[in-house]
């Protein structure tokens, strides 16, 4: 059974840093692009970042470019999102997703709140 | 950035009726468009990928059509569990983008 389990979300002050993790199981992790998608509660879905299966290439939304870094450890079947210089507008639920011509699996999400 | 515009924002229908949701792209996305369903308090679920392919386990009442800039998600006969928010998403160009969502509510 495919599972994606995010962790690391919590309350952080503006300007602070946070690292999200997503533990994957039930599939060959290194064979898939992985993405992060976020959603402000009650609002729409926003794509954040993507990484190739081997980790050699990454892409970012303009709103997070230069502040967020996506990475993966295929030996540990884990996806990461390092979030620096956090802003209030980064407050959202962050989902880890598997890309397979669409996001066929989603984690349950982890809430990041940026507030003083 | 490719902008996806969904219409209508809200669709009020009764069970058994047909639902049609539109997604228009600001430039061609070929067939690289997906549809998701999200119910309150739940994670989004992939319904349709590459414009017209139903994802695993998705009932046949859900169908997708279109290519280029105009796409449609159709629910042939609404079941009670289909009342939810629906999003389109393109994967043709970076950055990937989602539509703003269409809420299908019970009339």
Structural description of this entry:
The complex is a heterodimer of chains A (116) and B (107). Chain A is an all-beta fold and 116 residues long. Chain A is built from no helices and eleven strands. In chain A, the strands form two sheets. In chain A, strands 2, 4, 5, 6, 9, 10 and 11 form a seven-stranded mixed beta sheet that branches. A four-stranded antiparallel beta sheet of chain A has the order 1-3-8-7, with no helix packed on it. The model of chain A has no long low-confidence stretch (mean pLDDT 97). In chain B, the strands form two sheets. In chain B, strands 2, 4, 5, 6, 9, 10 and 11 form a seven-stranded mixed beta sheet that branches. A four-stranded antiparallel beta sheet of chain B has the order 1-3-8-7, with no helix packed on it. Chain B is mainly beta and 107 residues long. Chain B is globular. The termini of chain B are far apart. Helices cover 0% and strands 50% of the residues of chain B. In chain B, strand 5 and strand 6 form a beta hairpin. Chains A and B meet through strand 5 and strand 10 of A and strand 4, strand 5 and strand 10 of B.
Give the topology, please.
The complex is a heterodimer of chains A (116) and B (107).
Chain A: E1 3-7, E2 11-12, E3 18-25, E4 34-39, E5 45-51, E6 58-60, E7 68-73, E8 78-83, E9 92-99, E10 103-106, E11 110-114
Parallel strand pairs in A: 2-11
Antiparallel strand pairs in A: 1-3, 3-8, 4-5, 4-9, 5-6, 7-8, 9-10, 9-11
Chain B: E1 4-7, E2 10-13, E3 19-25, E4 33-38, E5 45-49, E6 53-54, E7 62-67, E8 70-75, E9 85-90, E10 97-98, E11 102-106
Parallel strand pairs in B: 2-11
Antiparallel strand pairs in B: 1-3, 3-8, 4-5, 4-9, 5-6, 7-8, 9-10, 9-11
């Amino acid at each position: 059974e495919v599972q994606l389990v995010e962790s690391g979300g919590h309350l952080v002050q503006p300007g602070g840093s946070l690292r999200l993790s997503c533990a994957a199981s039930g599939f060959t992790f290194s064979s898939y692009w992985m993405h992060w998608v976020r959603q402000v509660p009650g609002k729409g879905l926003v794509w954040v970042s993507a990484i190739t299966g081997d980790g050699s290439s990454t892409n970012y939304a303009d709103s997070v470019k230069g502040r967020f870094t996506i990475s993966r450890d295929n030996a540990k079947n884990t996806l990461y999102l390092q979030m620096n210089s956090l802003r209030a507008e980064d407050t959202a639920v962050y989902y880890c997703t598997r890309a397979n011509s669409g996001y066929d699996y989603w984690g349950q999400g982890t809430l990041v709140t940026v507030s003083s | 950035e490719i902008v996806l515009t969904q219409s209508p924002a809200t669709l009020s229908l009764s069970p058994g009726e047909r639902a049609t949701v539109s997604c228009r792209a600001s430039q061609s996305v070929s067939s690289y468009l997906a549809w998701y369903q999200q119910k309150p308090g739940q994670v989004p679920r992939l319904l349709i990928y590459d414009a017209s392919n139903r994802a695993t386990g998705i009932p046949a009442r859900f169908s997708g059509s279109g290519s280029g800039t105009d796409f449609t998600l159709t629910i042939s006969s609404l079941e009670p569990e289909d009342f939810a928010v629906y999003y389109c998403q393109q994967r043709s160009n970076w950055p990937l983008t989602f539509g703003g969502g269409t809420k299908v509510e019970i009339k």
